[in-house]
Amino acid sequence: MNYAFDEFKEGMLIAFQAIRANKMRSVLTTLGIVIGIVSVTLMGTAIEGLNRAFNKSIAAIGADVLYIQKWPWGGGDDWWKFRNRRDIRMQQEKTLERLAETASAVSPTIGASRTVKYGQKYIEGVTVVGTGYNFLEISGANISFGRFFTRTEGDGGRPVCALGSEVAANLFPNENPIGKTVKVGGYAYDVVGVVEKQGSLLGLESLDNRVYLPITRFFQEFSSRWGGISINVKARSVDQLEDTKEEVRGIMRKIRGLSPRQEDDFAINQQEMLVQTFNQIGGVIAAVGLFITGLSLFVGGIGIMNIMFVSVTERTKEIGIRKAIGAPRRTILMQFLLEASVLCLLGGIIGILIAFPLSLIIDQVLPTAMPVSTVLIAIVISLLVGLVSGFLPAYRASRLDPVDALRYE
Amino acid sequence: MSIIIRLAGITKVYQVGDESVHALDGINLSVEKNEYVAIMGPSGSGKSTLMNIVGCLDTPTSGLYELNGTNVSEMNDNQLAKVRNKEIGFVFQTFNLLARSDILHNVELPLIYGGISSSERKHMAREAIARVGLSDRIHHKPNELSGGQRQRVAIARALVTKPSILLADEPTGNLDSKTGNDIMALFDTLHKEGNTIVLVTHEEDIAEHAHREIRLRDGKVERDEPVKNRRIVQASSNVGVA
Known about the structure:
Chain A is built from 14 helices and 12 strands. Chain A is of the alpha+beta class. Chain A has a 6-stranded mixed β-barrel. A two-stranded antiparallel sheet of chain A has the order 8-9. By secondary structure, chain B is α/β, with parallel strands linked by helices. Helix content of chain B is 32%, strand content 28%. In chain B, helix 3 (103-113) runs parallel beside helix 5 (147-159), helix 4 (118-131) crosses helix 5 (147-159) and helix 5 runs parallel beside helix 6 (177-192). Chain B is globular and about 50 Å long. The two termini of chain B are 13 Å apart. The interface between A and B is medium-sized, with 26 and 28 residues.
């Protein structure tokens, strides 16, 4: 035990002596590892950022919500098939809401783009969402002040609306919007509440540039070019989502009069589909990215191996001396492995010190941070690179014949 | 008196291209405790090969080598390393010190490989350094010392493990004659103190310090006899105080 420690201490001493004796060479060799570790950790950080950005932006979809629509998310090869499907109608939503026992909430949605006006101010291209009173329950968003429209207002098609936070901020920068009347596509609506900020969906469509109003009213005043609606069904919990999905599927088939042999003429979309698609794409990006940056680390490793071969050759005589006075093979092997590992570890640590501020710059674009795990993994990887690339030279050194080694000049 | 080195029918054959070269061709000899032996011979006589085998740096092609009663002729690398560490103290012509380490560390090194604890190690190393009269240079690097001083450090390193034999290969080869004489005087003293010394040299006047002279020629022992005109007069008894 004591011997192992003394041996290790001696190995470290030799390693640092060797590095100090060849400063320039050590710096240049380590540079390869530094570049490798910087690129790998930054790639890891960027991938982490992509994941976080994605997860954040699809949170609004809800992991426990099913979206019954004409079109499946992620598309498909058969555009015409989906195009020719029958629209999903309000009557179907009413029936589904009545029959679905495992759903905690069912709500229709439909959208259109309209200009919203208040006094002299107006915003073009606001997404007008026609929906039910329980929309917020399904989407998981909260009201920041006021209230959403009630069931009575919804069923009765009252001219009331809730504003997205962006719309509210732009139209009512200095006043309370509650009770004010806005014009949506030319029709007057009373503002009853403002929905809190939700961000954007997949970085594309702002969820805050919206106006929510009763869907019955929507049908009276806006002719939608989409035709059909989307039915949003919230399961009681994420665990029960599959049960709910089966039940909803059965009910929808019945409502739409499909015979057992016909395939579904509607799609049941869920967050998981996006997650799967993203994980596939993201997985490929991560693999390719880490592979390419890994190559630079690999090149750094080759540099270490090269310089360790040089080091072994230069110190053949020293190896001979050490062997003559009783150093076993293992000690010589460890001495050179330690030297390679120390070089790589230094490279790894310097690499992280450089990568960390750079990751803060990435953070300006993607919501990310260099996780502790990445730092630890980078250190372990640089250590491994040292051990792997140092092994062959160290092994060669340990096998040197003491007679030949002593004779080497 | 106990036998330290026993060689019986030692051969060493090198393959050079298609030809086999018999560097050693049936060597038989024994060295007893506290003997002072010089191995002589012209170049190519096999004395370096013999020294390598005696020093456990190399193994014979055939034959038996017993060191302190242990058969070392068929040991593997790591076993030999252990034997070298415990039983043999090398003194080389070119000193062979580690340039980047100070004197103390150089002398301490065999003890590190021998697994001696740090405090004991330091104590033993300081003692060995004091023995060769270099206590005031303990933290100097080899390149800050003269040739003679470096060789003393090498001798201290050889002595520090209290080995069975001191094996010196042309120890004065790189030194001027005065310094060389000092080193030989040190060997004489060490011998008097009970150490067993094997000296490999091609210089007659160096060999004359020893008590017994073995001459090699073409891989065989040509002559093995006591030294008649010892260079330094010894006390009547050779028996040391070990």
